[in-house]
User: Fold this.
Amino acid sequence: EVQLVESGGGLVQPGRSLKLSCAASGFTFSDYNMAWVRQAPKKGLEWVATISYDGSSTYYRDSVKGRFTISRDNAKSTLYLQMDSLRSEDTATYYCARHVGDGSADYWGQGVMVTVSS
Amino acid sequence: DIQMTQSPPSLSASLGDKVTITCQASQNINKYIAWYQQKPGKAPRQLIRYTSTLVSGTPSRFSGSGSGRDYSFSISNVESEDIASYYCLQYDNLYTFGAGTKLELK
Assistant:
């Protein structure tokens, strides 16, 4: 059974950093591109970043470029999102998701809440 | 960046109705559109990929169609378990979600 379990969320002050993790199991992690998607309270879904299966390529939405870094450790089957210079507008539930062959995302984690507030 | 215009924002239906949601892309997305269902407090669930391919476990009352810039998603014979929000996702050029459609019972 495919499982994605996020951790590392919490309350953080504006301008500070936070690192999210997503532990994967039930599939060969190193075969799949992975993504982070977020959802602000009572709002819609917003793609944040994607990393290729081997970590050689990364892609970001414009609003997080230069502040967020997506990475992975295939030996640990874990995806990461390093979030620096956090802003109030980054407050959201962050989901990790698995990309399938055609590029869409099939399995999603349960999400982790990040609140940026003083 | 590709923009996705999803409509309507909300939809009210009776059990057994057929409902349709549309997404229009700002440019041709070559059928690279997926549809997701999200219930309150839960993660999104993929229902359809590549315009019309039902993913494993998706009931046959769900369907998708379209090409170029214009796509639609339908539920025939709405059931109570279908009450949720629905999102389109284009993945032809990076990724963009539609704003979502909240399906409620009339």
Summary: The two ends of chain B are 36 Å apart (CA to CA). Chain B touches chain A at residues 1, 32, 34, 36, 38, 42-46, 49-50, 55, 87, 89, 91, 94-100 (CB under 8 Å). Chain B has a mean pLDDT of 97.
